[in-house]
Structures are given as C-alpha cells and as structure tokens.
Amino acid sequence: MTNQPSSSQPPVDRRASRVRRVPSLFLAHGSPMSVLDKALAGAVYKFTSRQHKLRAIVVVSAHWQVSGALRVTSNPKPSLIYDFAGFPGWLYEIAYPCPGDRAVAQMVAVMLERAGIEARLDPDRGLDHGAWVPLSLGFPEATVPVVQVSLPLPSTPAMMLAMGRALAPLRSEHILLLATGGVVHNLARLQADEDSPFPEPWAAEFDGWVRDRVGALDVDALGGYPRLAPHAAAAVPTSEHFDPLLFTVGTALPGDVVHDIYDGFRHGTLSMRSFALTGRRREDRGF
Fold it and tell me: 116-146: string of b/e by CB count within 10 Å (b at 16+)?
C-alpha cells in the first residue's frame, strides 16, 4: 500500500455560495500549561462549541516542520506527542483520543499536490502539543476526526499563504481548518510573572499591528511583515509560530469577516491572540 496521494480522489465541491462555510481558526497555544488556562479555554470553547456537524478538523501546528514534501497524518488512531520537557508529570499523561481520517488526509494531500505543493501521507506520526493543547480546549470531547499537516522547512510567507489557499475549499466540506502558533513568541525575553498585565512595549506594538492587518484581511501587508511590521525581528525571532497565522489568512474566502476570540499576553512576550475567519451569514458563524 502506497502513502502517496491518489490522483483519483474526487474533487472538492466548491459551491461555497450554497454550502455552509465552516470557520478557519488561528489559536495561540502558548506553553503546554495552557491546558489549565481557564480564560483562554473559556473564550475558545465559547466559539468552538457553536460548530456542529463537523466532518473533520485539519490542523497546522508550529511544532511540526519538515523539509521536502509536506506530511499529512493518516493514522486512524493518532497518538499524542509530548514534545516538551521540564513540566509536571501529569502533563505527560494527558489523553486526547480523537480518531484520524485517512480519506480526509488523502483529500488534503491531493489538494496540496494540485496547488503545486508536494505532499505525502504519514501513517505513523501523532499529534504534537501545538495541536492537542488547543484541540483539548476547543473540542474536549475528542470525537471529531483530526488530521495534521506539517509546515515546510524552510518556509516563506508566500508558501504559507499558498498552503492556506490550497486548503480553503475544505471549509465548504464541513471541515474546520485550525492553525496554532503565536503572534509574538520570544522565549528568550520571557518575564517571570506569567500573568503580568503589562506586555513588553515592542511586543504589544507588533501584536497591535498584526491585529489591525488581520482585521482588514490585508494579505499583502501580513505577507511582508518582516520588513513592514514594527519590531518584527524581536516578535518573530524564528517564523514557525507566526507561519500558522499566515496559513489562516491564506484560507480566507470572499466575504469573510474576522471574529476575535481572545487577546492578551502571558509572560510579557507570548501573545495569546486568537481569531476566526467566518462568513457573514449567521449559519456560517455558527451562532
């Protein structure tokens, strides 16, 4: 049995104007301890609990980068990856027993290939904490099938936007797109006080710039953030946590609006800004 996507996969129905549009989400995941973050969990679940009859969730996380072809998980029972160290023992025992979905994984790989992005199925890889932490906050029942897609290594903003565009039609197939990372993610400049209400000024300025550009769905500005945004080098010392945001922006469909889910900082330099792209119709928004 091959792990390469089959070109015989039926095309995705793109009649978005007649089909309910599922939101596309960008959720900040912070540290693994975010599983205890009641404020973040409440805000995320308030939005995600309105999403019904999902066929699957396709996740892009900051914590899975691969060179060469992108990978798409196809295990029917994905395991969890505890890709962190130095945290309480109970954190390594958390379970999130969601099913996978090989048919959805195949569809994702074919759509990427058709967009000129090489992809192949990965039957062995599990879900990293960048995926299962926000999933456990937004979908605690763990009943919706989950498929994870890797990030390219190296990456460019253009590549991330292209990935989002390639998979955007899934939103009309009752498949929710979830990207997780962080607008500002500078571990070298963390404050000791996790709950400090005063983020570093440079971090707040960059976060505000991104907020405004996302609100306007200004794809060109966001794609040029390294040279256009204030303090970009400090806010995004490496791109893997910002790349998922660009993926989400790339999934925008005509008529989308931005719904703010949560904003705030942890440790002064970890932005927890989270948002959704939704259609304007009530049924698209899920509420």
Answer: ebebbbbeebbbbbbbbbbbbbbbeeeebbb
Whether 285 shows a pLDDT value over 70: the answer reads no
Fill in the amino acid letter for 131: A
- Check whether the bond before 154 is cis (ω within 30° of 0): yes
* Structural fold of domain 16-285: Protocatechuate 4,5-dioxygenase; Chain B (3.40.830)
For residue 7, the model assigns a pLDDT of: 45
Amino acid at site 270: L
Model confidence pLDDT, tens digit, residues 132-162: 999 999 999 999 999 999 999 999 999 999 9
Domains in the chain: boundaries:
16-285
Number of other residues whose CB lies within 10 A of the CB of residue 89: 6
State how far the Cα of 77 lies from the Cα of 95, in Å rounded to an integer.
12
Three-class DSSP category at 37: coil
User: Using one digit for the tens of pLDDT, what is the confidence trace for 220-270?
Assistant: 999 999 999 999 999 999 999 999 999 999 999 999 999 999 999 988 889
Question: Strand 119-122 relative to strand 146-152: parallel, antiparallel, unpaired?
Answer: unpaired
The angle that helices 38-48 and 129-138 make with each other, rounded to 10 degrees, is 70
